[in-house]
Amino acid sequence: MAGAAILIIDDEPGIRRTLASILEDEGYKVQTAEDAVLGLEILNRETIDLVFLDVLLPKLGGMEALEQIRKDWPTVEVVIISGHANIDMAVRAVKLGAFDFLEKPLSLDKVLTICRNALTVQKLRKENQNLKKIAGLTKDEIIGTSKEIANIRALIKQAAASDARILITGENGTGKELAARAIHSGSARADRVFIEVNCAAIPDSLIESELFGHEKGAFTDAVSTRKGRFELAHGGTLFLDEIGDMSLSAQAKVLRVIQEQKIERLGGEKTIDTDVRIVAATNKDLEKECEAGRFRQDLFFRLNVIPIRLPPLRERTEDIPLLIHHFLKEMGSEKTEFNTDALDFLTSYPWPGNVRELRNLAERITVMYNGDKIDGKGLKDLFLKNPVFAAENRGGASAQPAKVNVQTEAVLPSGLMELNYNDAKESFEKYYLEFQLSRNSGIITRTAEAIGIYPSNLHAKVRKYQIASAGQAGGHGEKD
Ligand SMILES: Nc1ncnc2c1ncn2[C@@H]1O[C@H](COP(=O)(O)OP(=O)(O)OP(=O)(O)O)[C@@H](O)[C@H]1O
Ligand SMILES: [Mg+2]
To answer: Regarding predicted confidence, which is higher, 460 or 38?
Structure first.
């Protein structure tokens, strides 16, 4: 890893200089950029292994830059540099796929440790991918012995045999994409294409051309004819991921294609027959979205021919030991023995990020755990080093997410403009928090993270405005 190429993006010349000299002394090749636009240009031009990225940047912000790096250079690791005042942002960045963060003022030791760890994880990932390629391992093995997972496996097998449309629902990281791929590989279309569309990632203005394609000259940027994903998926499976985030106008068009089994490219005259099997997924409750008028009921019925609901990991804790062993083995880790304490900890933690979060922990164990056997204390230490978990703990929350019952629909008080500044501000704040809490199932940490404040702060406000109607329920997330 000596000789790895590192890019530092920070607008403070002092930080750029210090970091660069620390890293160069270790034998890394270092480049610097004073803003993210210049940084992305360097990434475009050269091969970079690791980026140190400031969160607060002029022009293009650190979070947007991170998003772009994740999308265009998925193998590049990113370490966030953050001031104490914006730790919340750094934590959010880690959830969005940054490796870790450094707090200013920078500590020499931390810089080097994080840098080494990030490069080790990257190397493992690459090796792992190569091994998988060599071994021809398919990635869609669904691990688990719980009856919930056994049911899912049976359902997938049954559903795969038909051409019926399938709607997969479940929280983040429960394996929706994995299930979609398993359906495709188990179907008669297995040797044809599996095309994925992330509906949440495509801006509204581009979704039509993305899905249906366009003819040359259909709009200003349409310099050549392009096939859409429906056309590309012909004969195979089209996976519409995050379908709950699709705009109503795009929904109307998808519905038409489903009804007619034909598409038209934008700006095109002819209709093209398509034979696609549609599998859709979402972490939203589409029935509620329909009630709220955000999702078309007719489309929901069309998609929901076979519903598959993936249970959260905390509802099938018996799979946890199996899964973590599987991931550790897959990562080539030799540390696979857990004592009872450690297992208890793993099975009582609520896993808000579900299997994906468990997988990330396995990665951390592989890289950072000292010692052969994993015990409760060592595991908790590792968890506390995880910025995401540590931030939840800072809020005084226990390992179980605190939750409030938001019963009323948030209503913006009328006559807001007649109030004095303070009363108006507070009325709005209460309305805003009620709205955000109900959107996040009343879960304090999740809401706090979504709106960028500390959970402790949110707790205090919930008390202040008496938002919680039935006090706190310390249950396992939604289940209590
Ligand atoms: N039962 C399982 N067995 C093995 N691996 C699993 C299982 N469930 C999920 N995974 C792994 O966990 C990670 C997350 O799964 P996946 O991407 O399918 O989740 P998702 O529900 O689509 O998440 P999101 O809502 O965030 O898009 C992947 O690496 C996947 O391979
Ligand atoms: Mg997914």
So the answer is: 38
